Amino acid sequence: MAAVVVAIVGATAAGIGAERRWGARARAATGRLLDVMLYAVLPLVTFFLVARLELTAGVGAGLVFAYVVALVVGALAWVAGEHVLRLPRPSTGSLVVTSMQGNTGYLGVPLVATLLGTDELGAAVAYDTVVSSPLMYAGGFAIGAALGSRAGDTARQRARAYVVRNPVLLGLLAALVAPDALAPDAAVDVARVVAIAL
Question: Which has more pLDDT, 179 or 138?
């Protein structure tokens, strides 16, 4: 547990230090790194981990329950943002996305490894890959396209932005129809390591 806290504090301090020292260059480098992660790394990690996920009745019920909870919380956040707080559309979208997204990767996966042991890491990565990540890449991107200010004006433009700017969704959809043979053990092992490293 202490190692997780040290990693979080260290990463935060490094980010603050880079921002203060290099300013715009640090922000630009961060943007490029996030683009590489989003367009190159995450679609492959998602593909290999989801393609090999074995769904049992218990796992399936847990995943359905997790999606239902996230959707209910997101709907409540939308009602609060739109009707109670009367926020602008982009702010309501931000409220909905942040209410639905748990920090299951950056904090959750290391916590599971620390508190429950590495034998349970597969379930944690599966949850992060099958629930948390798709909620972000499918739900979060959809909310951004619907409520954001840069996705276009028409429904068609927003739908196009949702698909074109969301390569992880394409990896997820490919994984759902791919046979196991397209996800060899070595690739799945590398994907797990990369998922934890991200």
Answer: 179
**Distances from the Cα of 44 to the Cα of 56, 71, 86, 118, 152, angstroms:** 24, 26, 39, 23, 28
Q: What pTM did the predictor assign?
A: 0.65
DSSP-derived 3-state class of residue 23: coil
Q: Which amino acid is at 155?
A: A
φ, ψ for residue 182 (rounded to 5)? Answer: -80, -5
- Structure tokens, 50: 């989801």
| Burial degree of 62 (CB within 10 A; 0-12, 13-18, 19+) | middle
Could you tell me if residue 9 is left (phi over 0), alpha (psi between -120 and 50 degrees) or otherwise beta? alpha
Residue 74 reports pLDDT greater than 70: yes
Is there a contact between 159 and 152 (Cβ–Cβ < 8 Å)? no
d(CA 152, CA 2): 45
Q: Give the rounded distance of the alpha carbon of 120 from its chain centre.
A: 20
Mean residue pLDDT of the chain comes to: 82
pLDDT at 104: 65
